[in-house]
């Protein structure tokens, strides 16, 4: 209790000078390479880190990275624990009812099934990450959905036979397939889902959203975003 | 292991690779998180003991309202599953404090605080403010966790201490009364010094349970050893500098050894304390000590 009161008192006194800078807190998951992940130095890294830092630089904002679990990432944005979600979040109508999105910074990309055998039953048990558009798709496809909190767990479920296949963003599954020495393989057709990946913001934060939208437009025009996309997702990825 | 070689892990093999791997920044955070757990223990144990002491005194008080408060506190916490309390106390405290600040700082705010499932206060009432450095957000989360642990373990400690106070032989207190001591003097001079020997086995158990409850920090969103073990152990593709398959079993094995070491150390210390507290007490332990000294 004492500690709490002390911290509260400190938080109150710190507030005085901290208000000076225009700090924008960026919330990310940190477990979805190459979109965002915690690198070996313990820092947020990945495409979205590089992109987010560049956006903040160009918009003249001081940005701070916050790691938050995927399943509570939208509620914590709404309650103000950070100011934007930049976590490989696809723009969907359902999410738009709760939060607003900037324009996309990754073009609509394919989702894919990954399994350990060529003839995996895609209408059997399919694993996907909770609260993703892929999970929703699997549920509607008639397959049995096995939901997991992280991408790692989704892949692990296929490996240990709990699920027949995993369904996720193709770019996120690609490293697992490429480096598995043939253990994992693509199954079935790629499926296009969502309206691309954008930054999620509170509906009331229209000013910040306009500012960031303008920077993204600028970065799309001068080729910065395309260069970053190729750097993180490889040649042949969809660009603008 | 110079920084030069560690900078390019792909060229390394065997022990050199492992050495570099185990000294990455992320591993340093893992090692530091053991400090977080120890800090939690160091802060929570005395706080819980103090709360427990107050709770025990309150539940024995002559004043009825005080007695009701003390008994309700212990009964309530003991009757509700720990995990529910660990999830409830931090959220309740956080929202309670934010709501208070909201009422004080933003009296003109017209939108409701509760909107569906969301709890939204005005920006000036946020705790900590969104403009505060990340370290304070983490400290705040940790403080909330400490509060939750202290409330729960305080109730258990209150029960143990109340039981210990009742276990002090009535004859000891009657003798004090015969000497003309007041109730307050009896409590301070006779009851409290003598109860510790009865309380220690219970408190020792509580301490063990507290050690084993520390991974609940993970549940409260604090980046503790469980968080880092899971994060470091999960399979890493070449997006990371040190790719490796799923190594979680090894990291959790390390945690297991850490906790076993902690309990062993605690057992040794508790048995020493029990022996020294038994001195001069009207208990079996005290009697054994007296005989051993006389022989």
TrEMBL record, chain A:
<protein>
    <submittedName>
        <fullName>Amino acid ABC transporter substrate-binding protein, PAAT family</fullName>
    </submittedName>
</protein>
<keyword id="KW-0732">Signal</keyword>
<dbReference type="Pfam" id="PF00497">
    <property type="entry name" value="SBP_bac_3"/>
</dbReference>
<feature type="signal peptide">
    <location>
        <begin position="1"/>
        <end position="20"/>
    </location>
</feature>
<feature type="domain" description="Solute-binding protein family 3/N-terminal">
    <location>
        <begin position="23"/>
        <end position="236"/>
    </location>
</feature>
<dbReference type="InterPro" id="IPR001638">
    <property type="entry name" value="Solute-binding_3/MltF_N"/>
</dbReference>
TrEMBL record, chain B:
<protein>
    <submittedName>
        <fullName>Amino acid ABC transporter membrane protein 1, PAAT family</fullName>
    </submittedName>
</protein>
<feature type="transmembrane region" description="Helical">
    <location>
        <begin position="139"/>
        <end position="162"/>
    </location>
</feature>
<dbReference type="InterPro" id="IPR035906">
    <property type="entry name" value="MetI-like_sf"/>
</dbReference>
<dbReference type="GO" id="GO:0055085">
    <property type="term" value="P:transmembrane transport"/>
</dbReference>
<keyword id="KW-0812">Transmembrane</keyword>
<comment type="similarity">
    <text>Belongs to the binding-protein-dependent transport system permease family.</text>
</comment>
<feature type="transmembrane region" description="Helical">
    <location>
        <begin position="249"/>
        <end position="270"/>
    </location>
</feature>
<dbReference type="Pfam" id="PF00528">
    <property type="entry name" value="BPD_transp_1"/>
</dbReference>
<keyword id="KW-0472">Membrane</keyword>
<feature type="transmembrane region" description="Helical">
    <location>
        <begin position="28"/>
        <end position="54"/>
    </location>
</feature>
<dbReference type="InterPro" id="IPR000515">
    <property type="entry name" value="MetI-like"/>
</dbReference>
<keyword id="KW-1133">Transmembrane helix</keyword>
<feature type="transmembrane region" description="Helical">
    <location>
        <begin position="75"/>
        <end position="93"/>
    </location>
</feature>
<keyword id="KW-0813">Transport</keyword>
<dbReference type="InterPro" id="IPR051613">
    <property type="entry name" value="ABC_transp_permease_HisMQ"/>
</dbReference>
<dbReference type="GO" id="GO:0005886">
    <property type="term" value="C:plasma membrane"/>
</dbReference>
<feature type="domain" description="ABC transmembrane type-1">
    <location>
        <begin position="34"/>
        <end position="270"/>
    </location>
</feature>
């Amino acid at each position: 209790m004492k500690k709490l009161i002390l911290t509260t008192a400190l938080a109150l006194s710190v507030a005085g000078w901290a208000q000076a800078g225009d700090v924008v807190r960026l919330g990310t998951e940190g477990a979805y390479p190459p979109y965002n992940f915690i690198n070996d130095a313990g820092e947020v890294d990945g495409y979205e880190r590089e992109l987010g830092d560049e956006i903040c630089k160009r918009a003249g904002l001081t940005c701070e990275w916050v790691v938050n679990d995927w399943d509570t990432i939208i509620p914590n944005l709404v309650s103000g624990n950070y100011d934007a979600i930049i976590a490989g979040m696809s723009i969907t109508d359902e999410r738009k009812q709760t939060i607003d999105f900037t324009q996309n910074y990754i073009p609509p990309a394919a989702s894919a099934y990954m399994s350990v055998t060529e003839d995996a039953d895609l209408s059997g048990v399919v694993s996907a990450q909770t609260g993703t558009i892929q999970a929703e798709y699997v549920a509607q496809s008639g397959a049995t959905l096995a939901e997991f909190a992280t991408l790692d767990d989704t892949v692990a479920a296929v490996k240990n036979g709990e699920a027949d296949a995993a369904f996720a963003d193709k770019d996120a599954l690609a490293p697992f397939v490429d480096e598995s020495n043939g253990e994992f393989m693509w199954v079935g057709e790629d499926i296009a889902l969502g309206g691309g990946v954008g930054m999620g913001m509170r509906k009331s934060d229209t000013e910040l959203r306009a500012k960031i939208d303008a920077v993204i437009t600028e970065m799309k025009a001068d080729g910065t975003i395309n260069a970053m996309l190729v750097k993180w997702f490889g040649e042949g990825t969809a660009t603008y | 292991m110079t920084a030069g070689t560690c900078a390019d892990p792909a060229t390394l093999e065997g022990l050199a690779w492992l050495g570099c791997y185990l000294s990455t920044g992320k591993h340093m955070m893992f090692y530091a998180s053991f400090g977080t757990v120890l800090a939690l223990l160091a802060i929570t144990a005395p706080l819980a003991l103090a709360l427990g002491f107050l709770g025990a005194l309150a539940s024995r008080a002559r004043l009825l309202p005080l007695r009701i408060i003390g008994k309700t506190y212990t009964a309530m916490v003991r009757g509700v599953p720990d995990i529910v309390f660990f999830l409830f106390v931090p959220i309740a405290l956080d929202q309670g404090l934010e709501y208070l600040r909201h009422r004080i700082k933003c009296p003109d705010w017209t939108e409701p605080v509760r909107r569906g499932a969301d709890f939204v206060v005005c920006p000036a009432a946020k705790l900590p403010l969104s403009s505060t450095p990340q370290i304070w957000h983490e400290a705040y989360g940790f403080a909330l966790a400490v509060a939750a642990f202290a409330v729960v373990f305080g109730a258990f400690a209150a029960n143990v201490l109340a039981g210990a106070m009742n276990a002090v032989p009535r004859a000891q207190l009657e003798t004090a009364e015969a000497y003309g001591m007041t109730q307050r003097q009896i409590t301070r001079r006779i009851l409290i010094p003598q109860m510790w020997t009865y309380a220690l086995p219970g408190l020792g158990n509580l301490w063990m349970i507290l050690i084993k409850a520390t991974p609940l920090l993970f549940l409260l969103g604090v980046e503790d050893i469980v968080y880092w073990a899971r994060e470091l152990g999960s399979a890493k593709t070449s997006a990371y500098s040190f790719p490796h398959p799923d190594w979680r079993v090894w990291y959790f094995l390390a945690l297991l050894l850490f906790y076993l070491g902690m309990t062993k150390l605690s057992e040794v210390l508790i048995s020493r304390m029990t022996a020294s507290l038994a001195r001069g007490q009207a208990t079996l332990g005290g009697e054994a000590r007296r005989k051993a000294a006389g022989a």
